[in-house]
Design goal:
heterodimer, A: mainly beta, six-stranded mixed beta sheet, five-stranded antiparallel beta sheet, 11 strands, B: mainly beta
Chain lengths: ~110, ~120
């Protein structure tokens, strides 16, 4: 069965304290691994797509990496405005996106 | 600006009533989706449509119905047959799938439905 598991469920960081969020996946014939940011009461906002193991993408303080079993979202020197829930999703076929339950990140000033 | 518009943002329903959630996109995307989000669970697919006048059931379609009469619009009706409809509903769209596979999803702001 296809599954995406995110850890930790929640993470509290001090401003400037770098860390990583994990997304483990078992998705048959993975066509892409997606990262989203979701603020409370809002829809998810697209961050990155990774297609193959070894691929990395960066955007400001965020860097996403992909292996054959998991993906990491590295947050370097986070700021309070980075506080949000981060979702990852694996794509099987052309429409089947399997979402994890997310990591709630809180960055303290 | 291009994007996805969902309405209403908040909706209250009495038991036994049907309600319809609106989703409109001006991104010229072929594919549209409806997801349900509950606390502690990942987004679950209700229905999706890859082209006008065609749609398929997702993982939790029971108690829901959709239509796709126009490329821009994909309304979701929550019927009285849905036993636990209180949730946050998200509409999304994506460009045509080709080459390396499906593209990223673009989400609306969501509609929160509460059953009284």
């Amino acid at each position: 069965e296809d599954q995406v598991t995110q850890s930790p469920e929640a993470l509290r960081l001090q401003e400037g304290e770098s860390s990583s969020l994990n997304c483990s996946y078992t998705v048959s014939g993975l066509r892409g691994l997606f990262w989203y940011r979701q603020d409370p009461g809002k829809g998810p906002e697209f961050l990155f797509t990774l297609y193959s193991a070894g691929e990395e993408k960066e955007k400001e303080r965020l860097k996403a990496t992909l292996t054959k079993k998991e993906s990491f979202l590295h947050i370097t020197a986070p700021k309070p405005e980075d506080s949000a829930t981060y979702l990852c999703a694996g794509l099987r076929g052309t429409y089947k996106y399997i979402f994890g339950t997310g990591t709630r990140l809180k960055v303290l000033a | 600006d291009g994007g996805i518009t969902q309405s209403p943002k908040y909706l209250f329903r009495k038991e036994g009533q049907n309600v319809t959630l609106s989703c409109e996109q001006n991104l010229n995307h072929d594919a549209m989706y409806w997801y349900r989000q509950d606390p502690g669970q990942g987004l679950r697919l209700i229905y999706y449509s890859q082209i006008v006048n065609d749609f398929q059931k997702g993982d939790i379609a029971e108690g829901y119905s959709v239509s796709r009469e126009k490329k821009e619009s994909f309304p979701l009706t929550v019927t009285s047959a849905q036993k636990n409809p209180t949730a946050f509903y998200l509409c999304a769209s994506s460009p045509s799938h080709s080459g390396r596979g499906g593209g990223e999803l673009f989400f609306g702001e969501g509609s929160r439905l509460t059953v009284l």
